[in-house]
Design brief:
Distance between the termini: 56 Å
Order of helices and strands: HH
Low-confidence stretches: none
Helix content: over 70%
Largest sheet: none
Mean pLDDT: 83
Number of strands: 0
Length: 64
């Protein structure tokens, strides 16, 4: 697990490499990427549930 000292060193290196103005842009893009990922996983789970429902309803119609 990464400790506090390591996180501070990583943050300092990022600050030096990219500058203070690039950090908010980077954080914003990370937030947007997370939002898109969450949206995609939610849609994926909903699609799976719909597929299961349609499979079970087609199985019920075959039995009747």
């Amino acid at each position: 697990m990464i400790g506090t000292n390591e996180l501070l060193i990583i943050a300092l290196v990022i600050l030096v490499l990219f500058g203070a103005s690039a950090i908010p842009k980077f954080a914003r893009s990370l937030g947007q990427a997370k939002k898109e990922f969450d949206k995609g996983t939610k849609e994926g789970f909903e699609g799976k549930e719909e597929a299961k429902k349609s499979d079970s309803s087609s199985d019920d119609s075959k039995k009747a």
